[in-house]
Amino acid sequence: MDKNMFCFQCEQTIGCSGCTGNSGVCGKTADTAKLQDELTGALIGLARAVDSTTAVSKKTSQVIIEGLFTTVTNVNFDNASIESMIQKVRAEKERLAPDCSKCQSPCGKTDEYDMQQLWNADEDTRSLKSLILFGIRGMAAYAYHAAVLGHEDDEVNLFFCEALFKIGYEENTETLLSTVLKVGEINLKCMALLDKANTETYGTPEPTEVTLTVEKGPFIVVTGHDLKDLQLLLEQTSGKGINIYTHGEMLPAHAYPFLKKFPHLKGNFGTAWQNQQKEFDHLPAPILYTTNCLMPPKNSYADRVFTTEVVAFPGTVHIDEKKDFTPVIEKALALGGYTKDQHMTGINGGIQVTTGFSHGTVLSVADQVIEAVKNGDIKHFFLVGGCDGARVGRNYYTEFVKQSPADSIILTLACGKYRFNDLDLGTIGGLPRIMDMGQCNDAYSAIKVAIALAEAFECDVNELPLSMVLSWYEQKAVCILLTLLYLGIKNIHIGPTLPTFISPNVLNFLVENYGLSPISTPEEDIKKLLNKEQFILNRLEYEILNYCNQREYEWICRDKDGDIFVYEVKPKKTYDSWMDCGMDTYIMLFKDTFNFIKWGDEPLSVNKILDNCEVAEDE
User: Fold this and answer.
1) Taking each helix axis from N to C terminus, what angle separates 58-70 and 30-51, rounded to the nearest 10 degrees?
2) CA distance 459 to 370
3) Eight-state DSSP code of residue 249
4) Containing H/E element for 335?
5) DSSP-H helix ranges across 336-441
6) For the segment 587-614, what is each residue's pLDDT rounded down to a tens digit?
7) Contact 558/599 with Cβ under 8 angstroms?
8) pLDDT digits (tens, 9 = 90+) for 523-548
């Protein structure tokens, strides 16, 4: 590709095809994008060196995780910092394979990878390898935060090397697809690792109301995801007359018992990351960025931006590994904060939000939830969450939640919740209708709750009255999606657009095997997810289904060849057909009937069709 740059890893990529000009939509320059490619190629070279060893050391793992995290969208815009990271990766490879650089007859086994080979590969190979790459970039963020709290996993660390190695290796689509799903499998372990790290360090989150009012006087805004940085800042500001406010994905910190004990952790400032240039404009306080999402700061507040960990931006003050936040504290005291309390609101006018509904909290009242479902008080659960962003159309999620039935529960997580988390939807049986489960990595909580409910009702997760309506922006959303696919969770709705890096063939596979679907309108999607479709049958189709229903054939579906079958027992999907566990309790119907049933669909209930059908009489 003869372009200034090429990047299509985020949802807002130009023209839904890729950023190729002098800068990307995120604000990074073409030079920064090229350095990120060089860093990725160097990481693949390091993984190749690891591949020839018996184990991956802690030092090597730290370098790989830090390097991958550096390339996540809106983390690092500083070319000097990225160049330093590249040299760190190369030094680690030299340590592992010192003879390679001196070899007179190089074999190329530990060479760095030219990312142009990936960007110029056939579209299916590029798509699958991009899913692997972007997935492990997101997973690296979770592994990084867990490591900060002293939690690591050898299997997770080794897989980073395996995945990087496969990106630089020629493999067929079937093998690559297997690795794509393995990213989801290992990310589940990684999210569990971070969940354990957070709860063992800070306690199990508790439902907590968080004010949006900013009190007068000096204050500091903390954004990103890193709870350890917030802890250290709270300790260093204790007794100094400085209040601390969370921003973006740091909101769930208010629910952790250990952090709640600091009285100067006052509330939450602002909303999601894409609004920071407006919300931070002329802010009389410093902002500490612990991770993404960092947008290029405006001149009106650039002098009060501080970064730490892998976050960096040219010209801003970076707090190094010593974690001395004195410059941030001094800036807060110098700016002085507001002269009187500022009564701020959320997007919908709410004056407070609630967080802290982790799996530990929700499952502690599992009996109450199960009873509400059995009694019919709760008829459906919607998981509406993920990344927020600036693309027009994301108000879909606000409207979806507003229009959700009064007998439904909204589970949410990540920064997409700011679209609706200040709404008051009331309660069901003492349970709030909106439950904020935490940061993006707390998708693990949603998974734990879904699995627990499936076990309680003795059914598959896909048979629960649970629908997932997700928003995505960057690479952490990718690894979460891959985890859901690995778990076999189907009929996920995703938006506001589908990822550009998914090729038509790969998308077709995901649609046929997992029912992945783009969002449409709140009205249509709610109707579809609540199974309130209206089926149009001709007289013959209606009589066929009545006949089948009377003989207890309960499920109907179409195989890959287009044939229609009805089954007594719900069948399982194979490569090109359906199986009913060898019971042979099925009937083959006319091929040219029931045209609304597709091979990519899940089996439909015969009763459901009959209960929601209109018979079009033959003319």
Assistant:
1) 160
2) 13
3) G
4) helix 326-335
5) 359-364, 366-374, 395-403
6) 888 888 999 998 878 899 998 899 888 8
7) yes
8) 999 988 997 667 889 999 999 999 99
